[in-house]
Amino acid sequence: MIEIVFEKKSNKAVAYDNTIQVGECDFLETEEYWNITHTEVDNHYQGQGIARKLVECIIENAKKENIRLIAECSYAKKVLEKYGEI
Prior knowledge:
By secondary structure, this protein is of the alpha+beta class. It is 28% helix and 41% strand. The protein is built from two helices and five strands, in the order E-E-E-E-H-E-H. The protein has helices spanning 50-64, 74-82; strands at residues 2-7, 12-17, 20-29, 33-41, 68-71. It has a five-stranded mixed beta sheet with strand order 1-2-3-4-5, covered by helices on one side. Helix 1 packs across helix 2. The longest helix is centred in the middle third of the chain and has 15 residues, at 50-64.
């Protein structure tokens, strides 16, 4: 089972299959917003919705901290638009 972990100190959400990292979504933090810059999932794990879950994890944590989101990452931008976040 894939576990999604928010690693605030590292500015990313990470997907693990047991102890193996299989994906991550990185963001840059400013005082005004978090900018999602990169989302990547290992080729063997693609097509399972992991990238979406990684972006959703960052959305959820940004809401908890009342931080606005933007995205340089084209995939994350599509997800944010779908959720009405940008």
